[in-house]
Structure formats: structure tokens, C-alpha cells
Amino acid sequence: MIETADGGRVWLLSGRTSGYALHLTDHGELLHLHWGPRLALADAEALAAQPLPPYWPFESPLDGQEEYVVEGGPRFTRPALSVRTPRARGTEWTFESAAVDGDELRLRFTDAVHRLGLTLHYRMRDDADVVERWATVAHEGAPGDPDLELLRADAAVWTLPLRDGWRLSQLHGRWAAESRLVRAELTPGDKVLGSRRGHTGHQHLPWVALDAEGAATEESGEVYGCALGWSGSWRIAVQHLPDGRVQISGGAGYDDSGLLSLAPGASYTTPVFAGLWSPDGFGGASREWHAWQLARVIPDAERLRPVLFNSWEATGFAISEPQQRALAQRAAALGVELFVVDDGWFGERTHDAAGLGDWTPNPDRFPGGLKPLADEVHALGMRFGIWVEPEMVNPDSALYRAHPEWVQHQSGRRRTEFRNQLVLNLARQDVQEYLWEQVDGLLSSAPVDYVKWDFNRCFTDAGWPGEEYPQKLWIEHVRALYGLLDRLRAAHPSVDFESCSGGGGRIDLGILSRTDQVWTSDNTDPLDRLAIQDGFSQLHPARVMAAWVTDSPNTLLNGRRSSLRFRFVSAMAGVLGVGGDLTRWSEEELAEARGWVELYKAIRPVVQLGAQYRLRPPRGGLSAVQYVHGDDTVVLAHLQAQHHGERPPAVRLRGLDPAAAYRCLDTGAVHRGAVLLHRGLDTGLRGDLDAAVFRFRRLGERPA
Hints:
Blueprint: E1 2-5, E2 10-14, E3 18-24, E4 30-37, H1 41-48, E5 81-84, E6 94-101, E7 104-111, E8 116-124, E9 130-139, E10 148-153, E11 156-159, E12 166-172, E13 180-185, E14 189-195, E15 204-212, E16 223-228, E17 234-240, E18 246-252, E19 260-262, E20 267-269, E21 273-278, H2 281-296, E22 308-310, H3 312-315, H4 321-334, E23 338-341, H5 371-379, E24 383-388, E25 392-393, H6 398-402, E26 422-423, H7 429-445, E27 450-453, H8 473-491, E28 496-499, H9 509-512, E29 517-519, H10 526-536, E30 545-549, H11 564-571, E31 575-578, H12 587-609, E32 611-616, E33 622-629, E34 632-639, E35 661-664, E36 670-672, H13 673-678, E37 690-698
Parallel strand pairs: 22-23, 22-31, 23-24, 24-27, 27-28, 28-29, 29-30, 30-31
Antiparallel strand pairs: 1-2, 2-3, 3-4, 5-10, 6-7, 7-8, 8-9, 9-20, 9-21, 10-19, 11-18, 12-13, 12-15, 14-17, 15-16, 16-21, 17-18, 25-26, 32-33, 33-34, 34-37, 35-36, 35-37
Helix pairs in contact: 7-8, 10-11, 11-12
GO molecular function: alpha-galactosidase activity
Domain Glycosyl hydrolase family 36 N-terminal: 28-260
Family: Belongs to the glycosyl hydrolase.
């Protein structure tokens, strides 16, 4: 709901439990008023009537007050918008108009010197507390006017209320150790997170959360969160200003070297930078983020994700059609629903230094192409998927030999190789058309149901010789990726897509709006995964979080040995997959795995679509996570290690009705909701790397 007051100069957006208000002054300054609990329109008007802070030497009264900070004029904070032409640099804007279209508010400004149009977009839906913000910058000059260089154009600036201090939460990491949660006091100055790598990156997820004075807990206290929907290089800056105010800006591009050059008539629309206020702690904020993504971001989110088998850890590059058939037969016997052939099926791809870019089946490994294998997989009752990495090329490939100019490179410089790969310049129209023809042809040549789309290489030589404004490739690569995925999904609506980037290197709201799930990390060790999955859940729902059960010991990373029980219960916290070499599993292991797959299918609606409660974080000892969907509750509990004579504590559940009774579907025992909430659940776990699944269903009658 959007309401206006003060002659159309105060705007109030209201969601399910929260509100957002802003105000245009008589001098044309757009000021922030409120972000927090729902307000009445009269409250917003009262806030608008309050004066700006008094004069303070060497400070601007606008700093920390404006809704969207531009470069130029009496401002000293980090600008969200920076432009230049031969005439001038910076912006001096004039308010032009406001428009309300359903749940979207649009505020339009202009700069007469630059002939620039700026539109700020706001959307807040009645059934959610997420505020979606983005901006459109347009060159509104006449033909022949000089181009407008867009140095920086953030999606939004978020302003927090004045408090004594703030604590910042962020997710950091590296390859195989993504999504690690860290919280620390926000000190004065700028805290800048981002990626200069051309993709979202393993190092930081584009999300931050802040709570006043570190007072919020998992289930209580005010939490403000912001998340950016962009799959290329990005920046989020958290500014702790001299007067104690805090503003958060974010958008595409890492620094101010330049985004785009806009000719007259051209425009740029930023990605969405979403914000959320929650009064229910970090857990409440997470559940609101999850619900919003399931309702508004993730395609067909109501469809449950299938149990998959992926061949990579079982075979590496040494794959063949008979070998894949043998794995498929065993996978089908386990109850797997989707069989995915990973790297090595195409071109001369017998190792990681050849074949990328040549997306036709290797004739020695698949003499009849992929269709015979896909047909057999379908006959076994499973769907069929493949791995691709379209944005990359090996120098040892037919594509590169034919088109060496198609890769990102700088004239006269050595072409840097990572993982024996170069990055195709997807900003080029001819490259886009080639990839469309290759992937569309591939999906048309065989009954493919699923595509794992990988991206294993950061940008290093981001040049475009001959292009007048080569910096634009950073933006245009991502735009082209989105366009290609949108085009493929429209042409092949029954095909699902998974985003992968060496594991969790491209996970954000932008890619999630075009894919059905994401590969969370290349680290499949079940203990390491607990921390990765805990961090991931701060923002994203279990419905998109792929997790595999692989072989023990974990030879890829740490050599840790773990039971099949521990591996399955760890992976059941998201979208379950199996990635071990099933031809080496014993009959006892296969029988046990069938039971776990059957159990996962029973709890899948609760895990993938339910409200998630992080009961105990994975910090050693006992950890647990809970899901509630309708009358059903699932608890996954893990015990990392147990000291001698020390009994693991009971796990206190959340999200239950204290006046109701709940039956354990595994034992038949009936538990009172109040007891589970207060006293907790005795898991019975013991020793090292133990785990268990608990299922409860609310009974119709209430206990006396």
C-alpha cells in the first residue's frame, strides 16, 4: 500500500508489519523519514515537519538524510550516482514528478546540464516486509549531444535510524569455504564489501544485516538487512558517518572506473537492491527473506526439487556411456529422480585443458550422442541432466582456434589463463548468438531436462580491443547472461537450470530469479557443509540449496571419514543429491541409502517450503535446524563430538503451538508443544559425527 500526504510530497509505503516513508522538501531535497514498524500517515507527516539537524562546521546537513546521494553540491558522503560529460561532472537535480502504479512508486528527477533523467523506483507488497528499490538513469539529450559517462549508479541508499551503535553481520569465505557468518561492531568510516571478479564471488555474498548495539538474538530484536540482485562485480558500502548515522549503498560495479557510456536516448536500469526490517531477530529476518524469494524471486518455487545424482565425484573426466549407464541403474534403484552427467561428455574434453567451447558430444564416449543415454535414463524413471560452462573456452578448442578474438583480452598483453580457461566476451553480439545456437541446439538434440550451468573463472583480462567504451563489458556480460538464460527458458520451458560457479561463486537474487537451484559449494564434506549451509540460510531458502552425499573418506579436501547417516542428514537440509561412486558402494550401503532417500522424499515439502528455525548453530558439539510447514515439523540434529561424561543438551524447538500436541512420526510418542518449546527434545545423539532426523505432526485435538 502506498499513501501520500503534504500535497504529494510525503510518501508512505506499508507492508505486512513494516513501513517506509520519505519526503520531498520545499527545496527539492528527497529525504528519508522512516524504515521500521508500520506508521500511520499522520506519523509520517509529523516526521516530515521536523527540521534538519542544526549547522555543524565542516559538515553538510544533507549527509545521512538523503534517500539517494548524488555526486555534487553540499554532500560529503559516498555518492550513489556519479556521471560526467564534457560539460561537467556531478549532478544537480530537479524534481519532476511522482507516479504510483499499483505497488510501485516512481520519483523522477532531471539534471538540465547533463540532460539526465533519474527515476527512483520503490515497491513494497502488502503481504511482505521486503522493500524493493532500483533506479533508472537515462540520457535525454538530442541526437548529436555528447555521451553521458555513467561512472557509478547504485540501486539504492538505505538509511538506518540513529542509535548508539550498530553490529554488522556479513557472509565471507573462499572456494570450498563459502558463506561463513561473521558479526562485529560497526566502527566509524566505510565498510566496503564486493567483488572485482566479474561474478558474485566466493569471497562475499551481496548481503549485510545490522542490529543496534548488537542486541538482536536469533529470535528477538530489530534487524535491518539488505541484499543485492546482481551476478557480476558489485559493491555494498556501509557508511558509519561522523554524527553516528549509518547509510548503506549498493549496486553493480566495484569502483568508479566507469560502468557505461550512454548515448542520447539510451538508459540504464540498475539491479534491485532489496531491504528488510524485522522485529524478530536474525531468524525472523531469514524467514521473511525466504518467504519473499519463494513468492517473488525463484521461478516455480512451489515445485519441489528432485533428488539428483551427479557423476562428477564418481568419474571425473574419465567418463563413457557404458559407465554412465551403470551409475544410472544404481541411482534409479536408490530412488533418485534426476541423473546428471557432469564435465567430460563433449568435444576433446578428456582433461581440464581442452574442449571448453565445443558443445557437441564426444563421438568416442557417446557414439550416438546424448540421446541414447537420456532415453535409458528416462526409461529408468529419472529425468536427465547435463553440465555446461558456456561462458568459458579452452585455448585448446575448435572454438578458440576459429575465434581467438572472442575472448576478453587487452591488446599487446598476455592472455591470462586460470584453470586453462579464458573468458568469452559475452558482451559481443556474435558470441551471444553462437552460445544461443550451441545450447539451444544441444537441448533440442536430446531429451535434456536439466542444465547445470557452471562458471569457473574470474575476469582478469577484461578488455575489448576496438570497442569505444570497453568498460561496458562488465555490465553487458551479465546482461547478456540474463538474456541468454531468459531466452533458453522461454524456448525450453520444461528444462530446469542450476547456477554453479566453482561451487558458491555466483549466488545472488539476480541469478536466483532465472535458475531453479544453486550449487552451494564444491566442498561436500558433511561437517564443513553445516557451517556453509547455516550461513547460506541467513538469506536464501533451503528450496534452492543443493547438497550432495559423496564418498567417505572425503578425498577431495580433508580426508575426513563420516558415516552414511551423518552425510545424509547433513545433505537433507536442502535439495538432496548423491555424488558418490555408486558402483563401489556395498549392498548394505545401497540399502541404507535407499532408506534415507525415501525418508527425504517424505520430509521434502517441509524442508524445501517450510519456515526454517536455526535452533543451535554448528559451532562444535550439538547443532540443529528445524522446519515447519502446516502441521508438520522436521528437526535435523548433528553432534560433531562428545566429551567423556558430557550429555548433549536438549534441543528447544520453535514455531510450535504451545497448546497443541505433536506426535513423533518415527516413535509414535506424543509431545506437548509447550514442553518441546521450553524443555526441549532429547536427541539421543552420542559420540563423534552422529546425526538424526525427527518428524512431528500436530494432532487435531488440543491436550487438556
